[in-house]
């Protein structure tokens, strides 16, 4: 008898959604990717250039271990799938360590995480002469092209101009998705809608916020940095005739219109940090340079959110029941939408983290052996927020 094929719908054709499609392709799951836009990477994943490198803490934490493993996973996929020749990029990221505290933090990080020189080493950034952490395989790359190439490799059926408006578990176990293009059924649903997560009533409770970011596109100069430089903000290496200077951060005012004043501030801060870099640059007023505004989705603890989606409508939130649980020293039991996964909250690091996050998500949904230690997975699951809210009596 022919084995029944499992089907999945992935919502959102940003870097998160296409990474999920790739993880599903590895498992031969028939997949439909839908997006309300007319093409992939129209929102956060659509910047012309971004940077890829891991986030490190002085001592090992779940956060830094995840980020380092995600970076290594990114590099393995990059090599295995030949992304090197498909995605415009330049290798090498310098992370400036001007202050003693940051030098102390990162030099310890190299030791505590046992990071080898070919991944990161202390070095002087050549343009400024400032001591730095150098990631030789870190990258300036085009997020839009990365997203598009991963999509081509994952090769799901795609439906653009198709918005998910509602979904529910139906009686036969399938998930019914209502879209602007009609009804679709699937065995598994993966949600990766970026900052538009709040339009979905089932994920609205998640403590995620929309954070505005503005970048500046600078035409390539004759004398310029060969590698990406991070100094709080970042200036990428030139790719296809441009460099990107980014990125501003505003969680309060979210308008889509570019802010000329913000461009000027980004520019002035770079001039202050890297005066030798810009000494011979011939540029018009920074206010006149092309800009792009987009939105990060950031979680309360700044970590990604991935895993099976809790079904909070099924939690007994009566004070009486909750008090009874606490009195007996019991943990709250979390009910789930069994075959619905979420990947969101990628904040400022979606390019580095998405592929690994998607692999962890998909393998956990199919109950495969753990990809990461339980401790790390727990720090990523949406459950962590529910448990925190529960402990603080914020649910009742
Ligand atoms: C200014 C700025 C600079 C950044 N720089 C870097 C960087 O240098 N390095 C780095 O690693 N990260 C960087 N990031 C972060 C990174 O871009 C994001 O983490 C990443 O792009 C998020 O991807 P995503 O797929 O979750 O979201 P998105 O790319 O926003 O994708 C979400 C998709 O879901 C679709 N969608 C939403 N709702 C629905 C629905 N109901 N039905 C159908 N489709 C729907 C949207 O149309 C969209 O295509 C930056 C972010 C910003 C804002």
From TrEMBL:
FAD dependent oxidoreductase domain residues: 9-362
Matching InterPro entries: FAD-dep_OxRdtase (IPR006076), FAD/NAD-bd_sf (IPR036188), tRNA_S-uridine_synth_MnmC_C (IPR017610)
Gene Ontology BP annotations: methylation; tRNA processing
GO cellular component, one term: cytoplasm
Coiled-coil ranges from the UniProt annotation: none
GO molecular function: methyltransferase activity; oxidoreductase activity, acting on the CH-NH group of donors
UniProt entry tagged with the keyword Transferase: yes
Pfam families linked to this entry: DAO
Annotated protein name in UniProt: FAD-dependent oxidoreductase
Source organism phylogeny: Bacteria, Pseudomonadati, Spirochaetota, Spirochaetia, Leptospirales
């Amino acid at each position: 008898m022919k084995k029944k094929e499992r089907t999945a719908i992935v919502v959102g054709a940003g870097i998160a959604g296409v990474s999920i499609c790739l993880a599903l392709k590895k498992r031969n799951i028939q997949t439909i990717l839908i997006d309300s836009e007319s093409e992939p990477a129209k929102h956060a994943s659509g910047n012309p250039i971004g940077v890829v490198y891991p986030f490190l803490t002085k001592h090992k934490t779940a956060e830094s271990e995840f980020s380092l493993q995600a970076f290594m996973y990114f590099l393995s996929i990059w090599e295995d799938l030949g992304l090197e020749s498909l995605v415009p990029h330049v290798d090498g990221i310098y992370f400036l360590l001007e202050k003693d505290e940051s030098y102390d933090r990162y030099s310890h990080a190299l030791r505590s995480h046992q990071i080898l020189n070919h991944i990161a080493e202390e070095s002087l950034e050549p343009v400024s002469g400032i001591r730095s952490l150098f990631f030789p395989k870190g990258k300036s790359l085009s997020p839009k092209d990365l997203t598009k190439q991963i999509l081509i490799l994952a090769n799901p059926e795609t439906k653009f101009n198709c918005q998910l408006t509602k979904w529910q578990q139906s009686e036969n176990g399938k998930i019914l998705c209502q879209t602007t293009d009609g009804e679709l059924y699937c065995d598994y649903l993966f949600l990766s809608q970026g900052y538009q997560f709040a339009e979905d009533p089932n994920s609205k409770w998640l403590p995620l916020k929309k954070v505005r970011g503005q970048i500046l596109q600078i035409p390539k100069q004759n004398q310029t940095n060969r590698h990406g430089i991070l100094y709080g903000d970042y200036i990428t290496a030139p790719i296809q005739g441009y460099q990107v200077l980014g990125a501003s951060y505003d969680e309060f005012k979210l308008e889509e219109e570019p802010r000329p004043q913000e461009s000027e501030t980004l520019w002035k801060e770079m001039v202050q940090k890297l005066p030798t870099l810009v000494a011979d640059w011939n540029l018009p007023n920074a206010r006149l340079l092309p800009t792009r505004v987009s939105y990060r989705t950031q979680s309360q603890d700044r970590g990604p959110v991935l895993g099976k989606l809790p079904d909070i409508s099924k939690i007994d939130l009566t004070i009486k029941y909750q008090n009874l649980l606490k009195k007996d020293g019991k943990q709250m039991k979390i009910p789930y939408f069994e075959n619905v996964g979420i990947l969101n909250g990628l904040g400022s690091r979606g390019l580095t983290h998405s592929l690994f996050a998607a692999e962890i998500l998909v393998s956990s949904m199919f109950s495969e052996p753990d990809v990461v230690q339980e401790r790390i997975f727990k720090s990523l699951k949406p459950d962590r927020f529910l448990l925190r809210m529960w402990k603080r009596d914020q649910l009742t």
